[in-house]
């Protein structure tokens, strides 16, 4: 290691990018920091904060425009290869060769790093064991699920023990189970090999596991310290409120989050609402806001401090988008008759069963969450519901129709926001919206009115080129396009994957408002705490339905109480079912 | 009535989107329009069998007044450039091997004597057959020079053959070649655009988004067809302008008819491209399949060598090649001033290709699963 | 130093293994790499020909005398022409317009009379639609008629003096029968190498950029040159198979003579193959996206190689500026060399010159390609 005991030393670092509109902007703006050797360090911040740029600079892939950056004692802009010989780096999207098998990918990286044969055997077997992939060594990497790909990426990165490990958002789009595995591997390695690790992440529970946390925003360093130190900043500001009986937690949450002058943040948790008050808002003012609702202080967490920090730094720009005024009482949700009915739905690909005999129904105005590990069959179910994929067998009804067979007009009643950004990247925001207005056959006048309405609702810049929008804004645009024709039913496939906590709040605020207007919403997500916004959730694994009910019922099924977080409840449900299945297998 | 307006409005918005998606990228704009212009100018000048500069060597063993006069005529054409005057025929081989001369003329020592004796007197011409077209053309030209020379010496053949060529009086390769480029240059790029269009939506994930809208597959096909066609027609127009105003080759036929034909041809080409596209799972496959289809089509189009010279089987195979008919129509209308009745037959295969490929693409579009 | 060398080799071998596997697993690659060349070879050998055979010619005898008949009789004797008797000019013109016949031979009413005075005239009308064929057909008609006239004179006996005419004795070297296949097939070798180079490698780097695999690869001890060499290697093998295929079919299928040294042909083909593959790689590295790369590859390969390399059209006939552009194409230099090697034999000065130029291209393109992979994202 270096004499100073620091792996990375940055001094006055700056990186200027030219936006496609020709204007330069500072992605990294006068950043100075030092990262201690032998620690697990988190780099966190909202989308577009400059985390990836910083990671790439440390890996010698980008040259700083000003300032110096020392990595492992070398000036990385002068001698990038010397640094690259000693570090390992896992980019956000690890470049696995999808047509090569798991073993071939591992071999390639081992060869490139010059890992000697005898060392390799031991290392591989350990990596494969840790990632639980020994069974799949011959499978092409492209055929692995998202979580497995990420684990394989990590294994490839770690074919040798580097002096410094850089991980750029390793858990984006990864389900809770794989995420847990990933972190277990990391912690084992840090312990066993005294690794220095820098990881960037948007998950606060991951940052909380690190020794040091750096919070960056818009290219600047907002705060650094241990998770405890940082959490401390929110001390005395955090509360928990219980909604009056009969009121969903999300209604109360909506009311709180709509008062940004008093409330920094609010989220539903275990049937209650966790919120953070503004420092200048006293408890009397809170009581004014929550006249009929009891609330009590709760222990602060890293996420609370993070939200408080960012709101403070962003000032006014942290405003939430405009919404229909949050009703205090849920409006009539129709007569509660089911708009989606699924009975014994089966989908097979060859001899692989992606969805096995699944049944559920969704009532009008309901928010229905579909959860499950990567490859559990959620997306397949979705695609069948939207008519994109024929079912192998079973009954399927959306608004009384099977969309695959129904006339094209029937598709005008649904909206669909897909897993990855699926709009036309080189078109502007307005051009995209105009296209979808046209595709849905909206008359000119109505199209114009609706486009103006969604632009305002989602706070979108009509002239911006959509492909280069920050992730959060892309998601807003996708939502805007999906809602343009005011569908009765909205399908959202992992809409919040890779989005920072602030953007997720705004996103869910829109969803809850829509549900209040009677729109039926089906959503999948990897953020388990988001299940708390749903009326009911279903958990799928391996194509089968494991649990179906309100978040509380699901927690109970997992053997937990109200305090159990959804992440734990989810993992427990899946593991119980897998264990039961394994027992059955042994018995048979 | 109202559904029709909606139907058309939907297609219109699709077209707008497709067009914007291709045209917004400055790199694409360049790559779609600049190379067409460059190629038509380059090939107009470059692709020619018309001799302009033939290096030749001469071995004049006769050194008579007659032989000098003959050589003066050859030098006087401006086409033949004397690379060297050699001493013995043995030296010819080295010059031709090294490519320093294409033609070698040997005038034997008894050349003059034979002529005075009233005998036929042969001049030996050696041609470099590595390029048989150049060799043939050079031989023809030397033959003409010698015939003229004979005539000037008062020797007439009993029969003269007067040659006249219609539509291309000087039989310039450029005149024959350039009108084919109206069809062939745009063919490659429009086919590729069409082939990549659906594949790109699949690769970028916009495909599903499109499929959940109320658009019907046929509408989507038409929406993708029109922009690619527009780009193809713009490219053809650029080539047409270069031919007409840069190279100033007179256009004989009707512009309206030419465009009708180009529309028919481009539709078939794009239809073919869309079928490839709907069949491919990603852009790489789309591109490679396109290459595999385009190369034989270019070669069997009659652009480089005439279809009539091909074996029967291959001539039959060209019936499914839209480029063959596109080239034929463009050339006949442009050079010959052919009317609708002359080229009506060419529409039949084009219509057939379109009628098969478009519905096939629409069907594949919906039913080919990733 | 030895350590550095062995590191280099381990990495290079690992990368080559990776590229080879990827190449073998994508069937469309092999289709373009092996099937397309095979198809091109067959098309070239059997499909493409400038050689006119049985060109239909309308013969209009306005003068129906025996002399007139005898004069055009030579047309039926020509293997290149297929004369059809047509009663009048109007009919013949209609046939020409409909492309049913390629030419009209018209013997005017006063032919016999004028011929007696030594001034017989026969009109030939050609369709300039295809100038090359028209020119050839014109020459054949001319030849056939003159031949009849000569026979005629022979029959008349030696009384008629053929006069002290200059005659031409033609000899075509290297390709005595002027068979176009002979010069198309060596050119095919050039075309095939150019095409597979452009198509196979032009997506290799672009694809890695689009799929994000380069970012992970960059942060390893790997060097840009190793990446370039590894990407070239497996496609060199495919290319070498294609070269062998071309040479074998030229020799055994089309019976094109190979007069030069086979060794030189093979070495220079492999040299041009690496230039061509490198050019594809460069396109790929510069564009970084598959759409642009594929358009570029299409534009940079087929048309220039066909039109400007001297493959079909002799570059000496081109205006100076265009010839300068043509000389900038590596294909032009290889075309010159390979035609010579096939038909003329090994001309060493030409071999050294052409191979030297190709080598310069290889080094230059290699340098540029390596730069596009110089491990930076900005």
UniProtKB/TrEMBL annotation, chain A:
<dbReference type="InterPro" id="IPR027417">
    <property type="entry name" value="P-loop_NTPase"/>
</dbReference>
<protein>
    <submittedName>
        <fullName>ABC transporter related protein</fullName>
    </submittedName>
</protein>
<dbReference type="Pfam" id="PF00005">
    <property type="entry name" value="ABC_tran"/>
</dbReference>
<dbReference type="GO" id="GO:0016887">
    <property type="term" value="F:ATP hydrolysis activity"/>
</dbReference>
<dbReference type="InterPro" id="IPR003593">
    <property type="entry name" value="AAA+_ATPase"/>
</dbReference>
<feature type="domain" description="ABC transporter">
    <location>
        <begin position="8"/>
        <end position="243"/>
    </location>
</feature>
<dbReference type="InterPro" id="IPR017871">
    <property type="entry name" value="ABC_transporter-like_CS"/>
</dbReference>
<dbReference type="InterPro" id="IPR003439">
    <property type="entry name" value="ABC_transporter-like_ATP-bd"/>
</dbReference>
<keyword id="KW-0547">Nucleotide-binding</keyword>
<keyword id="KW-0067">ATP-binding</keyword>
<feature type="domain" description="ABC transporter">
    <location>
        <begin position="340"/>
        <end position="567"/>
    </location>
</feature>
<dbReference type="GO" id="GO:0005524">
    <property type="term" value="F:ATP binding"/>
</dbReference>
Automatic annotation (TrEMBL), chain B:
<dbReference type="GO" id="GO:0140359">
    <property type="term" value="F:ABC-type transporter activity"/>
</dbReference>
<dbReference type="GO" id="GO:0043190">
    <property type="term" value="C:ATP-binding cassette (ABC) transporter complex"/>
</dbReference>
<dbReference type="InterPro" id="IPR013525">
    <property type="entry name" value="ABC2_TM"/>
</dbReference>
<feature type="transmembrane region" description="Helical">
    <location>
        <begin position="286"/>
        <end position="304"/>
    </location>
</feature>
<feature type="transmembrane region" description="Helical">
    <location>
        <begin position="253"/>
        <end position="274"/>
    </location>
</feature>
<keyword id="KW-1133">Transmembrane helix</keyword>
<keyword id="KW-1003">Cell membrane</keyword>
<dbReference type="InterPro" id="IPR047817">
    <property type="entry name" value="ABC2_TM_bact-type"/>
</dbReference>
<protein>
    <recommendedName>
        <fullName>Transport permease protein</fullName>
    </recommendedName>
</protein>
<comment type="similarity">
    <text>Belongs to the ABC-2 integral membrane protein family.</text>
</comment>
<dbReference type="Pfam" id="PF12698">
    <property type="entry name" value="ABC2_membrane_3"/>
</dbReference>
<keyword id="KW-0812">Transmembrane</keyword>
<feature type="transmembrane region" description="Helical">
    <location>
        <begin position="343"/>
        <end position="365"/>
    </location>
</feature>
<dbReference type="InterPro" id="IPR000412">
    <property type="entry name" value="ABC_2_transport"/>
</dbReference>
<dbReference type="InterPro" id="IPR051449">
    <property type="entry name" value="ABC-2_transporter_component"/>
</dbReference>
UniProtKB/TrEMBL annotation, chain C:
<feature type="transmembrane region" description="Helical">
    <location>
        <begin position="182"/>
        <end position="206"/>
    </location>
</feature>
<dbReference type="Pfam" id="PF12698">
    <property type="entry name" value="ABC2_membrane_3"/>
</dbReference>
<keyword id="KW-1003">Cell membrane</keyword>
<feature type="domain" description="ABC transmembrane type-2">
    <location>
        <begin position="134"/>
        <end position="376"/>
    </location>
</feature>
<dbReference type="GO" id="GO:0005886">
    <property type="term" value="C:plasma membrane"/>
</dbReference>
<comment type="similarity">
    <text>Belongs to the ABC-2 integral membrane protein family.</text>
</comment>
<keyword id="KW-0812">Transmembrane</keyword>
<keyword id="KW-0813">Transport</keyword>
<feature type="transmembrane region" description="Helical">
    <location>
        <begin position="260"/>
        <end position="284"/>
    </location>
</feature>
<keyword id="KW-0472">Membrane</keyword>
<dbReference type="GO" id="GO:0140359">
    <property type="term" value="F:ABC-type transporter activity"/>
</dbReference>
<protein>
    <submittedName>
        <fullName>ABC-2 type transporter</fullName>
    </submittedName>
</protein>
<keyword id="KW-1133">Transmembrane helix</keyword>
<feature type="transmembrane region" description="Helical">
    <location>
        <begin position="347"/>
        <end position="368"/>
    </location>
</feature>
<dbReference type="InterPro" id="IPR047817">
    <property type="entry name" value="ABC2_TM_bact-type"/>
</dbReference>
């Amino acid at each position: 290691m270096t004499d100073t005991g620091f792996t990375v030393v940055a001094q006055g670092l700056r990186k200027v990018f030219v936006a496609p509109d020709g204007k330069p902007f500072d992605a990294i703006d006068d950043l100075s920091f030092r990262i201690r050797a032998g620690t697990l360090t988190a780099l966190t911040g909202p989308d577009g904060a400059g985390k990836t740029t910083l990671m790439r600079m440390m890996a010698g892939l980008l040259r700083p425009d000003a300032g110096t950056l020392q990595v492992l004692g070398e000036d990385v802009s002068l001698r990038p290869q010397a640094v690259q010989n000693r570090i390992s780096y896992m980019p956000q999207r690890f470049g696995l060769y999808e047509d090569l098998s798991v073993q071939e990918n591992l071999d390639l990286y081992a060869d490139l790093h010059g890992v000697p044969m005898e060392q390799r055997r031991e290392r591989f077997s350990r990596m494969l064991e840790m990632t639980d992939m020994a069974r799949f060594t011959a499978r092409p990497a492209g055929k692995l699920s998202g979580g497995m790909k990420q684990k394989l990426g990590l294994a490839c990165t770690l074919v040798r023990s580097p002096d410094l490990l850089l991980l750029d958002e390793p858990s984006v789009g990864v389900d809770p189970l794989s995420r847990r595995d990933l972190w277990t591997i990391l912690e084992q390695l840090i312990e066993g090999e005294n690794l220095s690790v820098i990881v960037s992440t948007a998950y606060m529970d991951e940052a909380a596991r690190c020794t040091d946390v750096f919070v960056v925003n818009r290219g600047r360093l907002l705060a650094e310290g241990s998770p405890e130190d940082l959490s401390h900043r929110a001390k005395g500001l955090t509360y928990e409120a219980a909604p009056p009986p009969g009121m969903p937690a999300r209604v109360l949450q909506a009311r709180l989050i709509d008062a940004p002058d008093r409330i920094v943040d609010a989220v539903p948790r275990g049937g209650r609402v966790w919120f953070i008050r503004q420092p200048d808002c006293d408890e009397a003012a809170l009581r004014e806001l929550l006249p009929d609702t009891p609330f009590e202080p709760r222990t602060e967490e890293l996420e609370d401090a993070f939200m408080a920090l960012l709101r403070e730094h962003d000032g006014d720009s942290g405003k939430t988008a405009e919404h229909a005024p949050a009703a205090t009482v849920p409006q009539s949700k129709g007569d509660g008759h089911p708009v989606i009915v699924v009975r014994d739905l089966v989908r097979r690909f060859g001899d692989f069963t992606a969805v096995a005999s699944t049944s559920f129904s969704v009532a009008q105005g309901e928010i229905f969450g579909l959860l499950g590990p990567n490859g559990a069959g959620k997306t397949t179910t979705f695609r069948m519901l939207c008519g994109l994929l024929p079912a192998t067998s079973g009954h399927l009804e959306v608004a009384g129709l099977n969309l695959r067979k129904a006339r094209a007009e029937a598709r005008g009643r649904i909206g669909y926001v897909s897993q990855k950004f699926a709009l036309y990247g080189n078109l502007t925001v307005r051009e995209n919206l105009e296209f979808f207005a046209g595709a849905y056959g909206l008359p000119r006048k109505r199209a114009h009115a609706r486009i103006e309405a969604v632009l305002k609702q989602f706070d979108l810049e009509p002239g911006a080129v959509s492909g280069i929008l920050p992730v959060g804004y892309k998601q807003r645009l996708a939502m805007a396009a999906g809602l343009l024709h005011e569908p009765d039913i909205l399908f959202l496939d992992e809409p919040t994957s890779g989005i920072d906590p602030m953007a997720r709040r705004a996103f869910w605020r829109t969803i809850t408002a829509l549900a209040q207007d009677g729109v039926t919403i089906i959503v999948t997500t990897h953020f388990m705490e988001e299940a708390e916004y749903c009326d009911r959730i279903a958990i799928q694994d391996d194509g089968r339905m494991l649990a179906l009910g309100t978040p509380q019922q699901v927690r109970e099924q997992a053997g937990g109480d109200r305090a159990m977080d959804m992440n734990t409840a989810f993992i427990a449900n899946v593991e119980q079912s897998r264990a039961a299945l394994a027992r059955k297998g042994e018995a048979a | 009535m109202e559904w029709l307006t909606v139907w058309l409005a939907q297609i219109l918005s699709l077209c707008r989107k497709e067009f914007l998606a291709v045209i917004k990228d400055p790199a694409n704009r360049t790559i779609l329009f600049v190379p067409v212009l460059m190629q038509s100018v380059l090939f107009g000048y470059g692709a020619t069998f018309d001799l302009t500069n033939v290096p030749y060597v001469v071995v004049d063993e006769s050194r008579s007044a007659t032989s000098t006069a003959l050589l003066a005529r050859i030098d006087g054409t401006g086409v033949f450039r004397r690379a060297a005057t050699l001493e013995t025929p043995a030296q010819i081989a080295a010059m031709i091997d090294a490519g320093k001369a294409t033609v070698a003329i040997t005038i034997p020592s008894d050349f003059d004597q034979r002529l005075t004796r009233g005998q036929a007197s042969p001049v030996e011409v050696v041609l470099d057959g590595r390029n048989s077209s150049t060799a043939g053309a050079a031989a023809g030209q030397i033959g003409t020079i010698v015939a003229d020379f004979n005539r000037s010496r008062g020797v007439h053949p009993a029969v003269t053959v007067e040659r006249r060529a219609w539509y291309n009086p000087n039989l310039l390769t450029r005149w024959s070649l350039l009108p084919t480029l109206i069809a062939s240059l745009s063919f490659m790029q429009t086919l590729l655009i069409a082939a990549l269009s659906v594949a790109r939506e699949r690769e970028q994930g916009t495909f599903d988004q499109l499929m959940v809208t109320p658009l019907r597959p046929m509408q989507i096909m038409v929406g993708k067809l029109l922009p690619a066609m527009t780009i193809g027609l713009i490219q053809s127009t650029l080539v047409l302008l270069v031919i007409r105003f840069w190279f100033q080759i007179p256009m004989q036929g009707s512009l309206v008819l030419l465009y009708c034909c180009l529309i028919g041809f481009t539709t078939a080409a794009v239809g073919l491209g869309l079928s490839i596209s709907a069949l491919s799972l990603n852009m790489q496959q789309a591109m490679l399949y396109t290459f595999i289809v385009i190369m034989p089509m270019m070669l069997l189009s009659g652009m480089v060598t005439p279809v009539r010279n091909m074996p029967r089987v291959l001539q039959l195979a060209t019936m499914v090649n839209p480029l063959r008919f596109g080239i034929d129509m463009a050339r006949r209308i442009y050079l010959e001033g052919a009317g609708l009745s002359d080229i009506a037959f060419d529409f039949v295969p084009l219509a057939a290709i379109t009628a098969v490929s478009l519905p096939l693409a629409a069907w594949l579009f919906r039913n080919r699963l990733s | 130093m030895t350590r550095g060398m062995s590191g280099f080799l381990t990495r290079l071998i690992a990368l080559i293994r990776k590229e080879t596997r990827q190449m073998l697993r994508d069937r469309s690659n092999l289709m373009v790499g092996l099937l397309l060349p095979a198809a091109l070879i067959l098309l070239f050998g059997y499909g493409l020909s400038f050689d006119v055979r049985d060109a239909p010619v309308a013969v209009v005898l306005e003068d129906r005398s025996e002399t007139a008949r005898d004069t055009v009789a030579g047309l039926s004797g020509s293997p290149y022409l297929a004369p059809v008797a047509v009663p009048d000019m109007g009919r013949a013109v209609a046939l020409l317009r409909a492309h049913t016949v390629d030419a009209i031979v018209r013997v005017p009413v006063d032919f016999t009379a004028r011929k007696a005075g030594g001034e017989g005239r026969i009109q030939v009308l050609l369709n300039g639609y295809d100038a090359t064929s028209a020119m050839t057909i014109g020459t054949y008609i001319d030849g056939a008629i003159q031949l009849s006239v000569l026979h005629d004179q022979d029959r008349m006996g030696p009384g008629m003096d053929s006069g002290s005419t200059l005659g031409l004795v033609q000899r075509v070297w290297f390709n005595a029968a002027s068979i176009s296949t002979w010069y198309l097939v060596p050119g095919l070798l050039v075309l095939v190498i150019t095409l597979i180079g452009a198509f196979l490698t032009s997506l290799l780097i672009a694809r890695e950029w689009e799929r994000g695999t380069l970012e992970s690869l960059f942060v390893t001890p790997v060097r840009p040159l190793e990446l370039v060499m590894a990407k070239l290697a497996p496609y060199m093998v495919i290319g070498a198979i294609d070269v062998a295929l071309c040479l074998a079919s030229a020799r055994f299928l089309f019976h094109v003579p190979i007069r030069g040294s086979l060794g030189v042909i093979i070495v220079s083909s492999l040299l041009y193959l690496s230039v061509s593959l490198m050019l594809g790689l460069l396109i790929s590295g510069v564009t970084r996206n598959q759409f642009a790369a594929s358009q570029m590859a299409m534009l940079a390969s087929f048309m220039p190689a066909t039109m400007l390399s001297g493959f079909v059209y002799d570059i000496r006939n081109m205006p100076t500026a265009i010839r300068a552009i043509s000389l900038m194409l590596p294909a032009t230099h290889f075309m010159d060399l390979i035609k010579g090697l096939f038909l003329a034999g090994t001309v060493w000065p030409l071999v050294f010159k052409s191979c030297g130029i190709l080598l310069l291209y290889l080094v230059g393109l290699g340098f540029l390609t390596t730069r596009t992979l110089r491990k930076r994202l900005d």
